[in-house]
């Protein structure tokens, strides 16, 4: 590829910034397009559990730059309408980009004023398509979305990842939570298939606590989204994770 | 100063490291199908996984395309979701254009063409299309990701495919047996062999387990059955 010569030794070329040592020659925008190579401002796990009359979703408020805890007040669970809660982990900017689309869908729908509202399965399906389309362009939206809602009086819980891989289940955790919280929540859901809201909430809070001890990218401030057949949607928070570090004194050998 | 003499400052590296994005994932799953003279049975495990995580224990990988055609998919789940959605609409378009349901053999040809259409960015799926042919005989079509298609009477595919195919060759094809006479397999025998091979697969393959969903296709239609496997 041809670049114009620098103005002086190791100096900037016309139309370019100063060249730092070991810099690779930059490709011009018209020749190539830079696609997202990876997430930048990231958020960690989302935990979700379906109970007998609804779904409970939890996620902390941290957005990190790698290992740096950069932004500590980034909500990533939001109410879409009276049928749906959407949670997301992964790149926070990509989440905000998708969130704007979803919010515009809701506004457009409200303007129609036909008494029909977006249903969780529709949003879930729509998300699989936009995420699959972006992965097929090799320019993925670096997110894991969790769709929680009520459809036809039944709790709905589904997830879509950055490839468009989608599935529904009673227990869904993303990120590090899929390794630490999923076994705890699956165990609880297997032992008692029809959990009550209070039980589900206790299990989620315990999982968040365990996750906070072990996930170095987690944060003690979190939000809790609850969608219930009777009580509708509520987003609670910021809440505080209960923590007890006394066990730390008993850990030896490191 | 030549490039080689310049000191390297990783913090000032202005070109981002190539975090190679992989558009495919291996979500595991196995599909086994056995055809007889007037029936075909197909079973798929219900575990959806990636790496060492089990995404869900109850994901059906069988997709009914018509009253006597079923598609079993394993491999990259996001591609499966897309492909089956395309097939569903193509089935509907055929129905509305010709006012008849597409035959299993036509479905088999269409699937091959749809797969080859994406030859250079394939759907990473092991497909198995089963159904009854125009004479009412059971048929099993198996595919590679780019659309190579082959008709067989029995086939195992997916994450435990390589593990199970020799077992089926022996048990149904009567291969490598002394004095074994080849005779058409009965529906009951096919079902019990299907369950047995999945039990074996669940023992050795971490991507196969939880339970199997079985579809039995006869001239009277499709019936479903489930069977529990180990869940670890």
Automatic annotation (TrEMBL), chain A:
<comment type="subunit">
    <text>The 26S proteasome consists of a 20S proteasome core and two 19S regulatory subunits. The 20S proteasome core is composed of 28 subunits that are arranged in four stacked rings, resulting in a barrel-shaped structure. The two end rings are each formed by seven alpha subunits, and the two central rings are each formed by seven beta subunits. The catalytic chamber with the active sites is on the inside of the barrel.</text>
</comment>
<feature type="region of interest" description="Disordered">
    <location>
        <begin position="19"/>
        <end position="38"/>
    </location>
</feature>
<dbReference type="InterPro" id="IPR029055">
    <property type="entry name" value="Ntn_hydrolases_N"/>
</dbReference>
<keyword id="KW-0539">Nucleus</keyword>
<dbReference type="GO" id="GO:0019774">
    <property type="term" value="C:proteasome core complex, beta-subunit complex"/>
</dbReference>
<dbReference type="InterPro" id="IPR023333">
    <property type="entry name" value="Proteasome_suB-type"/>
</dbReference>
<keyword id="KW-0963">Cytoplasm</keyword>
<dbReference type="Pfam" id="PF00227">
    <property type="entry name" value="Proteasome"/>
</dbReference>
<dbReference type="GO" id="GO:0005737">
    <property type="term" value="C:cytoplasm"/>
</dbReference>
<protein>
    <recommendedName>
        <fullName>Proteasome subunit beta</fullName>
    </recommendedName>
</protein>
<dbReference type="GO" id="GO:0005634">
    <property type="term" value="C:nucleus"/>
</dbReference>
<comment type="function">
    <text>Non-catalytic component of the proteasome, a multicatalytic proteinase complex which is characterized by its ability to cleave peptides with Arg, Phe, Tyr, Leu, and Glu adjacent to the leaving group at neutral or slightly basic pH. The proteasome has an ATP-dependent proteolytic activity.</text>
</comment>
<keyword id="KW-0647">Proteasome</keyword>
<dbReference type="InterPro" id="IPR016050">
    <property type="entry name" value="Proteasome_bsu_CS"/>
</dbReference>
<dbReference type="InterPro" id="IPR016295">
    <property type="entry name" value="Proteasome_beta4"/>
</dbReference>
<dbReference type="InterPro" id="IPR001353">
    <property type="entry name" value="Proteasome_sua/b"/>
</dbReference>
<comment type="similarity">
    <text>Belongs to the peptidase T1B family.</text>
</comment>
From TrEMBL, chain B:
<dbReference type="GO" id="GO:0005634">
    <property type="term" value="C:nucleus"/>
</dbReference>
<dbReference type="GO" id="GO:0005737">
    <property type="term" value="C:cytoplasm"/>
</dbReference>
<keyword id="KW-0539">Nucleus</keyword>
<dbReference type="InterPro" id="IPR001353">
    <property type="entry name" value="Proteasome_sua/b"/>
</dbReference>
<dbReference type="InterPro" id="IPR029055">
    <property type="entry name" value="Ntn_hydrolases_N"/>
</dbReference>
<dbReference type="GO" id="GO:0005839">
    <property type="term" value="C:proteasome core complex"/>
</dbReference>
<protein>
    <submittedName>
        <fullName>Proteasome subunit beta type-1</fullName>
    </submittedName>
</protein>
<keyword id="KW-0963">Cytoplasm</keyword>
<dbReference type="InterPro" id="IPR023333">
    <property type="entry name" value="Proteasome_suB-type"/>
</dbReference>
<comment type="subunit">
    <text>The 26S proteasome consists of a 20S proteasome core and two 19S regulatory subunits. The 20S proteasome core is composed of 28 subunits that are arranged in four stacked rings, resulting in a barrel-shaped structure. The two end rings are each formed by seven alpha subunits, and the two central rings are each formed by seven beta subunits. The catalytic chamber with the active sites is on the inside of the barrel.</text>
</comment>
<dbReference type="Pfam" id="PF00227">
    <property type="entry name" value="Proteasome"/>
</dbReference>
<keyword id="KW-0647">Proteasome</keyword>
<dbReference type="GO" id="GO:0051603">
    <property type="term" value="P:proteolysis involved in protein catabolic process"/>
</dbReference>
């Amino acid at each position: 590829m041809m670049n114009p010569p620098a103005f002086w030794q190791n100096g900037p070329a016309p139309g370019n910034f100063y060249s730092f040592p070991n810099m690779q020659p930059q490709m011009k925008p018209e020749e190539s397009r830079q696609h997202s190579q990876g997430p930048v401002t990231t958020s960690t796990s989302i935990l979700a559990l379906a109970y007998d009359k609804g779904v409970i979703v939890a996620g902390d408020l941290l957005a990190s730059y790698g290992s740096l805890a950069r932004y500590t007040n980034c909500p990533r669970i939001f109410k879409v309408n009276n049928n749906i809660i959407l949670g997301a982990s992964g790149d926070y900017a990509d989440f905000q980009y998708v969130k704007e689309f979803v919010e515009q869908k809701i506004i457009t729908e409200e303007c129609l004023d036909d008494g029909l509202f977006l249903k969780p399965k529709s949003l879930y399906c729509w998300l699989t398509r936009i995420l699959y389309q972006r992965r097929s362009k090799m320019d993925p939206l670096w997110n894991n979305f969790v769709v929680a809602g009520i459809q036809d009086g039944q709790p709905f819980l589904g997830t879509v990842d950055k490839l468009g891989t989608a599935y529904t289940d009673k227990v869904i955790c993303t990120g590090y939570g899929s390794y630490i919280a999923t076994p705890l929540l699956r165990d609880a859901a297997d032992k008692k298939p029809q959990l009550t809201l209070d039980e589900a909430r206790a299990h989620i809070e315990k999982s968040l606590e365990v996750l906070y001890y072990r996930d170095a990218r987690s944060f003690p401030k979190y939000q809790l989204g609850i969608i219930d057949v009777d009580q509708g949607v509520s987003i609670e928070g910021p809440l505080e994770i209960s923590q007890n570090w006394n066990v730390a004194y008993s850990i030896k050998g490191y | 100063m030549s490039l080689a003499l310049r000191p390297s400052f990783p913090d000032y590296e202005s070109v981002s490291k190539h975090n190679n994005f992989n558009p495919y994932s291996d979500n595991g799953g196995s599909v086994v199908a056995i055809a007889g003279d007037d029936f075909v049975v197909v079973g798929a495990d219900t575990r959806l996984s990636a790496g060492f995580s089990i995404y869900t224990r109850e994901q059906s990988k069988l997709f009914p395309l018509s009253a006597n055609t079923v598609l079993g998919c394993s491999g990259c789940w996001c591609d499966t979701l897309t492909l089956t959605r395309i097939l569903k609409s193509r089935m509907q378009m055929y129905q509305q254009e010709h006012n008849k349901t597409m035959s299993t053999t036509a479905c088999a040809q269409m699937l091959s063409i749809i797969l080859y259409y994406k030859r250079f960015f394939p759907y990473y799926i092991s497909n198995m299309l089963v159904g009854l042919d125009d004479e009412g005989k059971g048929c099993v079509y198996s595919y590679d990701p780019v659309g190579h298609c082959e008709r067989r009477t029995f086939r195992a595919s997916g994450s435990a495919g390589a593990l199970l195919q020799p077992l089926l060759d022996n048990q149904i094809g009567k291969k490598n047996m002394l004095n074994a006479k080849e005779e058409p397999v009965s529906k009951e025998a096919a079902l019990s062999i299907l369950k047995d091979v999945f039990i074996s697969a669940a023992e050795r393959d971490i991507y196969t387990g939880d339970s199997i969903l079985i579809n039995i296709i006869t001239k009277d239609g499709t019936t479903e059955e489930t069977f529990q496997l180990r869940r670890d």
